[in-house]
């Protein structure tokens, strides 16, 4: 084990349990019809997910992290911090902004919230009391940004010394951190402890650059059984939007892989992958929200209300509009086709 890995392992041990959760969820943000965040509904949803998922990114892209304003972001963070102190769960806080100035502002706000909930001015103590494993950042937005500019912006945040998770999301940022840039960040910043890649390209994970012990999680959906290191893949775990809707099945995939039952893992993986592919295609034309959010809100509608959800008003998006009835009806058909319709919803 080299020096940078030892430093990182020591840093990780300060904020994470000995066994890092292999399944993480970017929890959905639910809304009332007037656009207010519905914390009662979020609490019910969290109770559904929590028995199977111990790690959370809040707010992530699926939780409208890019759409929430600063006030809403702090509200969701406060919700997460209070729940993490009540339950056995660990948090990555999503600093999802498209420019460095906004990232620094939101980060400062989150640190203030941490101190407020933990009632201490010491950041390390605040993080540990609230089970916060790190702050999740993306490169600034811009398709013409050079790797040097990306390195500089990310390094500016990381030099604070806070536990940090790098989020590869070119669907929003219009750029990617090159493997060589990642390796440079790893070498300089031992507080870089996580890397989530939702690009679908997996360039960092598949590259030969030194990872330095950074915990790699895949965010792209589908074919789950082949991506973990246990089966020769490049990833330590998953951070999946679909953990909002299929938490028990995704955990079964991981457990089957760990037990060497690859056949069972592939069977469950294939079922989820087929349904997810179809619903993601279904929501692509929608003018509001993003595909991660809309697909999972469509499925979560049925997870919460069961088959009767088809006759209920659709979930509200951040834009204060409901998911179209046509999308919800088709999502219900997809769940039935793949035998994924719950017998009873978690709100029933």
Helix content: 40-55%
Low-confidence stretches: none
Distance between the ends: 51 Å
Q: How many structural domains can be distinguished in the coordinates?
A: 1
Compose a concise summary of this entry.
The protein contains 13 helices and eight strands. It is an alpha/beta fold and 348 residues long.
Q: Which helices and strands appear, and what pairs or packs with what?
A:
Layout lengths: L2 H13 L7 E3 L13 H11 L5 E4 L11 H17 L3 E5 L5 H19 L4 H7 L2 E6 L9 H12 L5 E5 L1 H4 L5 H10 L3 E6 L5 H4 L8 E4 L18 E3 L7 H12 L3 H22 L7 H15 L19 H13 L11
Parallel strand pairs: 1-2, 1-8, 2-3, 3-4, 4-5, 5-6, 6-7, 7-8
Helix pairs in contact: 3-4, 4-5, 6-8, 10-11, 11-12, 11-13, 12-13
Please, could you describe this protein's structure?
The chain is of the alpha/beta class. It has one domain (3-260): Aldolase class I (TIM Barrel, Alpha-Beta Barrel), CATH 3.20.20. The protein is 46% helix and 10% strand. The chain has helices spanning 3-15, 39-49, 70-86, 100-118, 123-129, 147-158, 170-173, 179-188, 203-206, 247-258, 262-283, 291-305, 325-337; strands at residues 23-25, 55-58, 90-94, 132-137, 164-168, 192-197, 215-218, 237-239. It has an 8-stranded parallel β-barrel, surrounded by 6 helices. Strand 1 (23-25), helix 2 and strand 2 form a beta-alpha-beta unit. Helix 3 (70-86) runs parallel beside helix 4, helix 10 (247-258) packs antiparallel against helix 11 and helix 12 crosses helix 13. The chain is globular, with a radius of gyration of 19 Å.
């Amino acid at each position: 084990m080299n020096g940078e890995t030892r430093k990182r392992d020591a840093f990780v041990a300060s904020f994470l349990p000995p066994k890092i959760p292999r399944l993480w969820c970017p929890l959905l943000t639910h809304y009332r019809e007037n656009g207010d965040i519905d914390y009662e509904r979020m609490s019910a949803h969290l109770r559904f997910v929590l028995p199977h998922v111990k790690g959370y990114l809040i707010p992530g892209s699926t939780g409208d992290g890019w759409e929430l304003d600063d006030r809403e972001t702090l509200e969701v963070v406060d919700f997460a911090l209070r729940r993490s102190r009540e339950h056995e769960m660990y948090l990555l806080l999503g600093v999802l902004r498209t420019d460095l100035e906004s990232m620094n502002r939101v980060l400062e706000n989150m640190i203030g919230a941490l101190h407020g909930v933990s009632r201490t001015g010491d950041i390390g103590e605040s993080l540990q009391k609230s089970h916060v494993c790190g702050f999740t950042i993306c490169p600034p937005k811009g398709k013409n940004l050079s790797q040097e500019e990306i390195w500089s912006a990310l390094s500016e945040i990381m030099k604070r010394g806070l536990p940090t998770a790098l989020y590869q999301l070119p669907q929003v940022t219009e750029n990617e951190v090159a493997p060589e840039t990642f390796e440079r960040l790893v070498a300089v910043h031992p507080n870089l402890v996580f890397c989530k890649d939702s690009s679908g390209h997996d360039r960092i994970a598949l590259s030969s650059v030194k990872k330095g012990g950074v915990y790699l999680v895949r965010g792209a959906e589908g074919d789950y059984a082949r991506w973990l290191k246990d089966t020769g893949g490049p990833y330590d775990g998953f951070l999946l939007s679909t953990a909002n809707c299929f938490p028990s099945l995704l955990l079964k995939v991981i457990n089957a892989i760990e037990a060497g039952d690859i056949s069972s893992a592939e069977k469950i993986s294939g079922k989820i992958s087929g349904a997810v592919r179809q619903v993601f295609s279904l929501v692509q034309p929608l003018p509001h929200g993003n595909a991660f959010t809309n697909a999972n809100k469509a499925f979560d509608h049925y997870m919460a209300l069961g088959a009767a959800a088809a006759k209920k008003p659709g979930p509200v998006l951040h834009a204060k509009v409901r998911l179209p009835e046509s999308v919800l009806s088709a999502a219900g058909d997809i769940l039935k086709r793949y035998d994924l319709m719950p017998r009873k919803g978690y709100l029933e």
